[in-house]
Write the structure tokens for this entry.
Amino acid sequence: MKAVVLREVGGDLALEEWPDPSGIVVDVKAAGINFADVLVRRGLYPQMPTLPYVLGMEVAGLLNGRPVAAFAHAAGGYAERVEVNPGFVFDLPEGASFAAGAAFLTTYLTAHIPLSLAHRAETVLVHAGAGGVGAAAIQLAKRRGAYVIATASTPEKREWAGGRGADDVRGYDEIDDLHVDLVLDSVGGKVFTRSLPLLNPLGTIVAIGFADGLWRDPSVQWLVGRNASVVGVYLNRLVKLQPDYVRACAEELLELWRRGEIDPPIGATFPLADARDAHALIEARRHVGKVVLEA
Ligand SMILES: NC(=O)c1ccc[n+]([C@@H]2O[C@H](COP(=O)([O-])OP(=O)(O)OC[C@H]3O[C@@H](n4cnc5c(N)ncnc54)[C@H](OP(=O)(O)O)[C@@H]3O)[C@@H](O)[C@H]2O)c1
């Protein structure tokens, strides 16, 4: 079969012959690109895989003719076929596109889990609101009745985040006057630090990603003094260690999708053979929503 193979850190993403997978195999129709894939390509992911390697941890496609969305067993989604994790294969809602299926699981689960666990979330700040996880977070927070402020780097991205339902959209340097109950932060670095003083008493900041650099820890003394908390979310580890919980969350989200209350945020699609262009778009920080490869 054909697969997009990464042979060296920073290297090309070329479509090549690759051994067929075994186990429970999905015929891939669409593969979601996650920011983590970009970090792996650039050698910046904390747990680097051994190369050569086929990226892609979520796909949509056909399992014995049945349209499904699924997590890969161990990456390999940028390919014509992939072995999937049997515990994380879900029927697509009727009429859903494969691209939407590949844009669903990671984005919504990563946003849903901290939102559903939050003590209070009347006012929610979503960083990188025009990204994949951010766009899902805006929709889910609005559904819960929150007032949602989203950040993004350009006017075009802010407009797009507004179109996803954010009540207020801002640049990262325009947030200092905010008071919020919950921050969903997939940016990290200085944005994370700058967000800490915005928390209302009993507020929470959720560390999701470090697109702009690793986090500088707030001191426990500061957290106690401010009645604030920091929560970390790492979906891959939850999938491994709390699979029943994650599956139940996915079923809940699928039901929302079936009822038309959420719709996966596809920003762009590329043929599998153009994976390098899709990564270039994300690395140039020019994408909105989720970028999907179509096989
Ligand atoms: N913890 C988990 O389990 C988990 C699961 C999924 C994703 N994540 C993380 O959550 C984040 C969002 O994931 P995603 O796949 O949906 O990606 P994404 O949001 O579509 O893309 C990353 C976003 O980060 C923003 N950004 C801010 N500073 C950046 C910088 N210096 N370089 C590049 N981008 C920068 C960009 O938006 P602006 O241009 O508007 O700033 C960009 O849209 C990523 O950090 C990812 O690794 C974590």
